Amino acid sequence: MKKHIILVLTIFSFFFSIGQTSIVDYTIIGNESNESATAIDTLDGYLYLAGHTNECESNDGFVIKYKGDSLYQRVLIGGEAIEIIEAVSTNNNGQLFTGGYTDQNNDYDVLLTKMDTQLNIITEKTLAIANWNFCYDITTAGNNVLGVGKTHNGENYDAFIFKTDHNLDTIWTTTLNAPNNQQLNKLISYNDSIFIATGYSEVDGLGKEILLLSLNINSGDTLWSKKIGGVNDDFCNSIIKTQDGGIVGFGTTSSYVSTSEDYMLFKVDSAGNFVWSELHQVQTSIGTYNDRGIDLVELQNGDLIVASYTESYGGPGVKSTMIMFTNSLGHWLNGYIYDGGHDDIPTAMVKENDTTIYIAGIANSQTHGYADAYLMRIRSVNVHNPQNTTLKAVPRKCYTAVTEKEQETSLMVYPNPVKGEFSIVFPEAPNGNIEMYSLIGKEVYSSNYSAQQPISLPQHIKNGQYLLKIKAGNNVIVKKIVVLR
């Protein structure tokens, strides 16, 4: 694999220098199911990787706590419906928030969760709003959560923005009505009173334009709006606030070569006035393919690092992860390609410090027919791009023996139905452990139990029937319970 990568970089070295030297650690995380990592954030030296998996038959969200080479914890989010996690954000109070969407109410609703740093779910809520609503990114602002996405009004999609308090109770929602489709992909908190959001807006006969908005944090009112684009599709996937107070966006354009998508960086000032833009365009002897900009970070000296996928350097139609470096004006300096032979697509990037960055994504190379989450760490040191690849299996959290009959034992679970608390009485083993599963086999809760202490169910467990797997001494006993709050 390394020989193939070096050959590719040598052939295309006239497009950019491969002078940047890095060690790349590439970790594939998953099991015999499809996993997608979609977001990443850091807090107190730990990484929090979020995404979704179908290991329990339906799609569920997941969050993984990670540090260095160690996977500390993993939790699933959701029930028997489809739950997709698109964003994760931490705050200085040691809290973790995720944003995405679910179809649990027979339509699509924004799904939000609040956790502690041990990945215990404190609150899980959906925004009960008419129409289909999707959340693609969130950020914390003080004790509040801001989110963006899109909403469907029955005719087209409109940009959708919301704000909640730290308990995930809705403060306000805003819909930007337009004659054509609009969508917001990313937002940042610019200061205590302003946030910036970006995505795209469709224009009659001209495809998509990049949409950039400045909004009031307290009300959601638009302060200024900027559209950037040419004659074909242009859209933005990520923005950052730079050290000089400007705003840099990274996305994709097809306005300059009609047969392909290319990377585009742009910068505006705090009032939305255009500063500069840079295009990264590749036309090769094997054809012209799509290259899509995904995410970016800024270094202390003002240089930028961008994560993207490219079809221009690998096999025809194969999407490879590409990391590139630019100066503060967006001029391309050098880069690194991970070409595993199949689609390996980055989805998010975060900076730990100026010498270490992490990229999350979706891996289809080395995964035996399944899509897996990947975590790539790039450490800038004076070596020539060696690569360390590891595979990490995560334990399946589904209890597959859901057809097992309830045993006849002296063990008692009461009250049943359960309103909020229940107790376990088993004279043979007064202490033990419980695991609680939905009827499709998904673990929803686990805890220790003691005959002297009732068990309190967390609020995220909804009404319905469950299987209680009780490990008491040398016994493993299954009981059916009903939650009816």
Poorly predicted regions: 1-21, 381-386, 401-405
C-alpha Rg (nearest Å): 24 Å
Q: Can you give the mean pLDDT?
A: 84
Structural class: mainly beta
Strand content: over 45%
Alpha plus pi helix count: 1
Percentage of residues in helical conformation = under 10%
Largest sheet: 5 strands, mixed
Shape: globular
- Measured distance between first and last alpha carbons: 56 Å
What is the β-strand count? 36
Main β-sheet, spatial strand arrangement:
26-27-28-1-29
Folded structure, characterized:
The protein is an all-beta fold and 485 residues long. The protein is built from 1 helix and 36 strands. The strands form 9 sheets. It has a 5-stranded mixed β-sheet, with no helix packed on it. It is globular. The model is unreliable at 1-21, 381-386 and 401-405 (pLDDT under 50).
Explain briefly what this protein structure is.
The chain is an all-beta fold and 485 residues long. It is 2% helix and 58% strand.
Can you lay out the helices and strands and say which pair or pack?
Layout: H1 2-11, E1 23-30, E2 35-43, E3 46-56, E4 58-67, E5 70-77, E6 83-90, E7 95-102, E8 109-116, E9 121-126, E10 132-141, E11 144-152, E12 157-164, E13 170-176, E14 182-189, E15 194-203, E16 207-216, E17 222-228, E18 234-241, E19 247-253, E20 262-268, E21 274-280, E22 291-298, E23 304-310, E24 320-326, E25 332-338, E26 344-353, E27 356-363, E28 372-379, E29 387-393, E30 412-414, E31 421-425, E32 431-438, E33 443-450, E34 455-456, E35 464-472, E36 475-483
